[in-house]
Amino acid sequence: MTLWDEKFTQAKNRRKRYRMVLEILCIVGAAALLVNAFFTLRTYHPFDPAAVDMGTTDTPDTGFIALSYFGVDRIGNTATLIGREQLHDQLKALKDQGYVTITQKDIEAYYEQGKPLPRRSLFLMFEDGRRDTAIFAQGILEELNYKASMMTYPEKFEKQDPTFLLPKNLKELQASSYWEMGTNGYRLEFINVFDRYNNYIGEIDPLRYAMMQRGLGRRYNHYLMDFIRDKYGVPQESTRHMESRISYDYERLRDIYQAQLGYVPGLYVLMHSNTGRFGNNGKVSALNERWIRDLFRMNFNREGYVFNQRNSSIYDLTRMQPQPYWSKNHLLMRIKYDINQPISFVEGDHERQKRWELLSGASEIKKEQYILTSSPESRGLARLKNSNSYQDLQVRVRLEGNLFGEQVIYLRADDQLNRYIAVRLANGELIVAEKNGGAERELYRDKLVLIEGGTIPSLEEDKRDTEVKELETFARYAPSREQAREYLARAEKRRKEPALSVADGGQPYVAVTSVHARADRDLVIQLKKDKISVTVNGCAAAQDVAVRDLDRGSFYLAAGELQDAWSQRNLADDVYDGIFEKLIITTDTGSKPADEQVLYSGELTGWEKFKFRTNQIWENILGWFLHYL
Fold it and tell me: What is the 3-state secondary structure (H, E, C) of 152-167?
């Protein structure tokens, strides 16, 4: 063996040892999560009426709030699943406000016997019955002494789907004392589905829905909400067939729960919410109501608002579904305006908060983020203290708020914001504007996708791509190879059909923005004398744009809601989080970068920075191994 071969072998063995150590650490971490989920030595302790502020029959009815999460995973990088850290932060914020969890029996006693509840009562639910929800939520419930209801679909029991909890798991959760059971219904299915170009699709299950969701609009319904209809809206089934179809699902739900758990959960969440009664059609609603009252003791029939009082029916309760991207203050803001009671917002790092003057909304400094939360139908606004003499600046920041809404940086601004230079991300556009006593004057505007080198499809192109995706979906889930081949052939034929592009004169496709769409962007702003330049994710945008205002002024951040967006869920959410990460403000005098003065830095330093970066590296490594092992 040559010396080179020996060195190569030694290096290779070292890499193997390092990899083995990392694999062991990750496996131990994953095992700890599983053990934490299904094995516990703690016991849930119900609220003690003597230790909490209880309502009475002589005081105003403070009711209870209800929260329902879709599911929980490790880091929460999906559209619906909240990360364990985010869930912990939100529930800990409620715990700090004095909220205690109540049970299904507490709600029954409240409505049926008039028993009072604690003034800060929380009813907590997790929908869809996911296995990862139990894994990542269990330790949080134990730490906070919170109890929750796990909602399930009994159809998943029949399919033995490993993604979802099975009856054995549910019994273990219930035995832990931190969980009780509920149901979302027998299964999840969609009917009367149209895409956004009003092409009739018909009936689809969640897998097909997820694959073609980008091309769908708002014209679809849950299978319990209406008659099955054709593309003209005409029922394709008789009343008797509708009654048989819907009743079958309730019967299957009842029989499976009885066989697998020994009882039917008393808690039901009717899908979809906010239909007026128990469906979009009077006959369907009446049938659903009969089954609901026969099988269940309570029903959450509405979504979007958090507050329940005695003037509601126990079969017409409402819950709010916090989203994975909500900050703690976003949740608290929504609750505050629903219950119309005092709420204390979370500030985070108190020392660093002293640099800021909060003028409206709420703000939290969390690690390297300044999170500015708007009030409902308003905006959040904060001024950097002692910044009134700022003039020539370079600003570096990562904006992580949603695409829908606006995040604004004001430069050279006066105290009343009658004079300023503004850089804003708003509904997928970069806008640079100036104001000096009169109306705001727009200096630059362009779409982020174009700044970053992308293109905007035409209506014809988007319609073609949407229909191709639908045909590919039908092919993937076709019941036979012959049908799959037929759908794929149609998809290929449609893909090859010409469509007029925007460059060739086609009408641009203007998407209606979803409130849940994310829009993380790195911004660099250079303001020097009478010129301003902005780059987005390293791409040149506004370059040497002339400005008139040369006076010194203050530095502000703002965030707020804008109109013209939609959501299939959280229909009432009018609160917005502007997230300004790693905000660094330096002078821009023309000197060498190393000689410019740092006026403000949102980055962590010293030991805090080391811990934060180390934790980031560990989470990335653990995530990689959990994904690929």
Answer: ECCHHHHHCCCCECCH
Q: Are 137 and 150 in contact (CB under 8 A)?
A: no
Please provide the DSSP assignment of 67-108 as one string.
Answer: EEES-EESS--SSSPEEHHHHHHHHHHHHHTT-EE--HHHHH
On whether the CB atoms of residues 365 and 354 are closer than 8 A, the answer is no
pLDDT band at 409 (very low <50, low <70, confident <90, very high): very high
What tokens does 333 get? 């803001």
What are the b/e assignments for 64-103, b being 16+ CB within 10 Å? bbbbbbbbbbbbbeeebbbbbebbbbbbbbbbebebbbbb
Please determine, for residue 369, whether its predicted confidence score (pLDDT) is greater than 90. yes
Going by their DSSP bridges, the two strands 565-566 and 513-514 should be labelled as: parallel
Q: What is the pLDDT of residues 194-253, one digit of tens each?
A: 999 999 999 999 999 999 988 988 889 999 999 999 999 999 999 999 999 999 999 999
Rounded CA-CA distance 41/561 in Å is: 45
pTM of the model: 0.89
- Give dist(CA 410, CA 379) in Å, integer: 14
Closest CA to 156 of 136, 133, 125: 133
DSSP, collapsed to helix, strand or coil, labels residue 7 as helix
The distance of Cα 629 from the centroid of its chain, to the nearest Å, equals 28
Bond from prior residue into 272 cis (ω within 30 degrees of 0): yes
Phi, psi of 370, deg, nearest 5: -105, 110
DSSP state of 315: T
- Residue 272's pLDDT is 82
**Beta pairing partners, 130:** 164
User: What is the SS3 string spanning 550-594?
Assistant: CCCEEEEEEEECCCCEECCCCCCCCCCEEEEEEEEEEECCCCCHH
Residues 313, 315, 319, CA angle at the centre, nearest 5°? 90
- From the list 449, 424, 459, 434, the residue with the least C-alpha distance to 578 is 424
Of 361, 364, 341, 360, give the one whose Cα is nearest residue 352. Answer: 364
- Contact residues for 210 (Cβ-Cβ < 8 A; gap 6+): none
Q: State the DSSP string of 185-219.
A: -S---EEEEEBTT--EEEEE-HHHHHHHGGGB-S-
Please return the burial class of 115, using the count of CB atoms within 10 Å of its CB with bins 0-12, 13-18 and 19+: middle
DSSP tally for the chain: helices H, then strands E: 15, 32
